[in-house]
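#help-structures

NK: newbie question. if I give both the sequence and a SMILES, will the prediction place the ligand too? trying with zinc ion
OV: yes, paste both and it writes out the complex. here, I ran yours:
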Amino acid sequence: MRPESLPDTLPRRSVLAMTGGCAVASASVAGVASATAQSDEDSVSRESFAIREGTAEETTVYVTTSDPSGPTGFVIGGMHGNEVAGYKAAGKIADWAIGTGTLVTIPEANAVAIERGTRNDEHGHNLNREFPEWGTPGTKLARAIWDVVTKYEPDVVIDLHESTGIYGGNASNGVGQAIFTGEGSNEAARVTDYVNRNYVDDPDLAFQVGGFSSPNARPQDLLVHKASRDLGAQAFLAETYSGVSLEKRVQWHTAVVERLLTEELSPNGTVNESEPSAQTQSQSQPQSQSTDTTTESTGSTSSKPAAKITPLPTWTSVSSLDRGQTITLDASQSKVPSNNLDCYEWKVGSGGSFKEAGEKIDVTVDQNNYPVALRVVAENGSTDTDRVTLSLGC
Ligand SMILES: [Zn+2]
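OV: that's the protein plus ligand as structure tokens.
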């Protein structure tokens, strides 16, 4: 897979817009020529406020709301002041637009430690060991952060960190290039799979999934543990390896958060239905119901392919393109049982027919509501079709 690179500054109309509004509607419902512009910036409200105001620990909480009745994501960086990529990425994420729900961000959680460039504050307090489960956080700063968490009751909590070593199944050499999460979550595996395929060149730097330590084992009293166990939030602690360039680490953190929020905040599961690792989903978990009305396969899909069009870069909103813009459409997230893919066929524009083409195609948008269809053909002749409508500045 060719690695995609994230720009230094993410556009305001970020990938989160794909979880609702135009993108999902036009990608999921055949024959819908245009959709309501729920992801426009003017439908997103932003506020910010300070915690620990007037102290050296004062820091800003950013709240972006698109649909208050939707799910809530919480992203925090800078718990450790020397883990630069985490708070740099969180600072960018605070500026993202979202298509649904609420995004709460505390980019620089431990302002004192960040100012000092040290892991802990001047008293040696490790902020990420101050959140005892079912207890009161251990410092004023930790209590202020926890007050924000409980105020917004997030469905998803993501804490961004860095490590000087690479995680190898245990933490003895470090915990970098890993996403840690609680039991029963397949999201981290799906996200690491996606990020590794699209953003990691070196297999030694592939992200892995680690589990949270049990309540009686160290490390203890982490924010993500408390959010998971006290509040039932889907909680993730992402670690990059600090031995690569800051730009790369910020890109990885940004991509991890983007994918975690896209999956978790997707209200109807339409975004994740064809993720390639979906077959690893635990059988004890209910399957997310597909709302895709364009699929031509019905009943059991166990032996049939599932077509999936994904725009690249992944934050591209297919409903807010510029005239003349070229967009890459990627079929690689389609599912083909037993890897018995025969070919990908694409139909671009309202006329014409399906033609065999590659896994990725480039489409230049020269008219509004431009339809593109992907047909995945398996060797046994079974097919599935996904459609997307490319729209101009909806
Ligand atoms: Zn850390």
